[in-house]
Write a structure and sequence with these properties.
By secondary structure, this protein is mainly α. The protein has helices at residues 15-25, 30-33, 42-57, 60-78, 87-91, 98-115, 120-139, 148-169, 177-185, 192-206, 208-213, 226-238, 241-247, 263-279, 283-300, 310-330, 339-356, 361-374, 396-411, 413-424, 430-437, 441-454, 490-513; strands at 427-429, 456-458, 464-466, 470-475, 478-483. Component of the eukaryotic translation initiation factor 3 (eIF-3) complex.
């Protein structure tokens, strides 16, 4: 495909002046007239013309401003309850440019999903548009630059619409004959293999794996790590946590990198990474990463209050606190959690966490509640059987994951008792511990083996890792207890004290001024 080398275009986009032109023209907002897909207000005309010009000029800063601010402002003012004008209505303002029209349609459908309820045909049309857009990216020579935020939103929305379609398709009970006919006709729309293949192809096209391996800068790569994060998210939705984490292996999750340049990408990565580790019993890794991202959000969320992603940031923040509460209840490694995060956690879930330690029916109900609130919206990717009586199966995947999770929680019930005794003794005979627990020695050995199994997991590299805060070994029928003692982080302690001292000094200075 030919390169898209855009020529210079005169003029600049001024959102205020565009708004004033719309008001002075006397043209009413489209929603007041009933939606007319061919009606293009002057402000929208100005928006697409200038966005097109900035894309041709590769002016990433202006593109970002228009995408992040102007598009949202116009949506709120003119298209709160209606779609934007159709792509056919605006195409002649942008020289019928194929790539720009694909990008415009991508935003058009994203706005539709956010503000309205898309029809089945619109869901299918959106899939076709993504196919065309990704084909251009993968097989064409696209000589343009888009902001990282837009690139991330594009991949994030692609996965969201896939998830939404699977949930929609699984609600078969009340489908009309026309909808069933469309599902039969377009049976390849939002096919799970097609979704995974596109995301994998984006990763390979960006060559981000080779870039990360050679420790080069990846900021210039189209969709770069977004494809990896998208793959992680899809595999989590499918309940395939091993494969999801494997897709993320080239990224050093402990370091700042290209995936952290957009806060939505950063939060989504850690949320799904932490959840996958939680479901694979790698509790220490989940706790460590949840702690870091929650501390980051705590320190930076005030800078994103005007961002369209702000509500999503707050939602994921609350979900990750719930997941952290679950992780710490199953693996009480509180020492891994920063003081600020721990304080917030105790304020939100302190009472529930205390009840979760009892492992009675009330405790299991709380585990159920927190998991259901914080887990991803699992999907069943397979198409329905149209021959059988039509039934809803949209909750099947969620119920299966919940069942597996609660089964794991019940298996942890015995461990709380053994952990309590191990914390009290530095060494104890098998016979004595068996009498304390009111079981025979054979049963105790089984419990101890279960403790070993449940407090250890296999990491992505195949190595066995420990989640235990208290471990042990047995020698001649004597149990020797080894309590993990993490290295003290003196640097963090001094930094916190310095911040507190600076606060006191500032308070004293204000008192002097008064």
């Amino acid at each position: 495909m030919a390169a898209y080398d855009y020529e210079d275009a005169p003029g600049t986009y001024d959102e205020t002046s565009a708004t004033q032109r719309q008001a002075s023209s006397g043209a009413p907002p489209s929603q007041d007239l009933g939606y007319d897909p061919n009606f293009v207000p002057d402000s929208v005309k100005s928006f697409v013309v200038h966005l097109y010009r900035h894309i041709r000029e590769k002016n990433v800063y202006e593109i970002h401003q228009m995408y992040e601010t102007s598009f949202q402002t116009l949506s709120d003012r003119l298209f709160k309850d209606t779609p934007w004008p159709s792509v056919d209505a605006v195409a002649h303002y942008v020289d019928n440019d194929h790539v720009f029209c694909l990008l415009y349609r991508e935003m058009w459908f994203r706005h539709l999903y956010a503000r309205l309820s898309p029809t089945l045909k619109q869901r299918i049309d959106s899939w076709d548009n993504y196919c065309s857009l990704f084909q251009v990216v993968l097989h064409g020579v696209v000589n343009m630059q888009l902001p990282n935020q837009w690139l991330w939103d594009m991949v994030d929305e692609f996965v969201y619409q896939f998830q939404s379609f699977c949930q929609y398709r699984a609600k078969m009970k009340n489908k009309t004959e026309q909808e069933i006919a469309l599902l039969r006709q377009y049976d390849q729309a939002w096919n799970v293999y097609g979704v995974l293949n596109f995301l994998q192809a984006l990763v390979e096209k960006s060559m981000i794996i080779q870039i990360l391996e050679h420790e080069k800068e990846g900021l210039e790569q189209f969709t770069a790590t977004d494809g990896m994060v998208g793959l992680l998210r899809v595999h989590c939705l499918l309940g395939d946590y091993h494969t999801g984490l494997k897709c993320l292996q080239p990224i050093d999750i402990t370091q700042q990198g290209v995936y952290t340049t957009v806060i939505g990408s950063h939060i989504s990565t850690i949320y799904h990474y932490g959840f996958a580790n939680l479901m694979l019993r790698r509790y220490v890794e989940a706790i460590r990463e949840f702690n870091k991202i929650l501390l980051y959000i705590y320190k930076t969320k005030q800078y994103h209050q005007k961002s369209p992603q702000y509500e999503q940031i707050l939602k994921k923040n609350e979900q990750m606190y719930a997941l952290l509460a679950i992780s710490l209840s199953l693996c009480p490694q509180v020492k891994l959690v920063e003081e600020t995060v721990n304080s917030q956690l105790r304020e939100k879930y302190g009472e529930k966490m205390n009840r979760m330690q009892r492992y009675d029916d009330e405790a299991f109900a709380i585990y159920d509640e927190l998991f259901s609130y914080a887990c991803p919206k699992f999907i069943t990717p397979s198409p329905p059987s149209f021959e059988e009586p039509l039934v809803n199966y949209n909750q099947d995947a969620y119920r299966l994951q919940l069942k597996l999770f609660l089964y794991e929680v019940k298996q942890q019930q015995l461990l709380s008792g053994i952990r309590t005794f191990l914390k009290v003794y530095s060494s104890i005979s098998l016979a004595k511990l068996a009498s304390y627990m009111e079981v025979d020695e054979s049963k105790l050995r089984t419990i101890l083996l279960t403790y070993k199994h449940k407090t250890h997991a296999v990491d992505t590299d195949g190595k066995i890792i420990s989640n235990a805060d208290v471990d042990f070994y047995i020698d001649d029928d004597l149990i020797y207890v080894v309590e993990s003692k993490p290295a003290k982080l003196y640097g963090d302690y001094f930094l916190r004290q310095i911040v507190k001292l600076e606060g006191v000094i500032n308070d004293m200075d204000r008192v002097k001024l008064d």
